[in-house]
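Final report, Chapter 2: Outcomes

The project's central promise was a pipeline that accepts a single protein chain and returns its three-dimensional structure in a standardized token representation, suitable for archiving and comparison. That pipeline is now operational. To close this chapter, we reproduce one record exactly as it appears in the project archive, with the input sequence first and the structure output second.
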Amino acid sequence: MEHRWGERIVVDIPVQVSVPPLIIGTGRITDISISGAWISGRFDLPPMARAFIVFDFSLGGAQESLPLACFVARVRAEGMGVEWRELAPQIVSDLMLFAAGTNHAREQRLAAPAADEPAVAIPVTSRVG
């Protein structure tokens, strides 16, 4: 069952999971949407627990930590799904725009042959029925 609103974007973002004043653990956001994210890692939090996802950024040589309030939506052995307490927080929108641009550029590099490389057509067949 789909729990999210909006498009999921595949990412690989290291984060900390915190229930102040404690850091519960570290993990990686593997997909993100305007309503939540999937975080791979091992966490000992029950569903509906309130937590913070802490993003650590290096901006202009300065380290900055940005916490984002969430609650645990589901927990599995390989990670947990969280939902943001605020729909479409600014940091998530910014990360999604950046990730979508990066993914688009990567797809363009894969799809476009190099200038000195001839284009190769690959026949595609489909079988219906």
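Archive annotation: The radius of gyration is 19 Å.
This record, like all others produced under the grant, will remain available to the consortium after the project formally closes.
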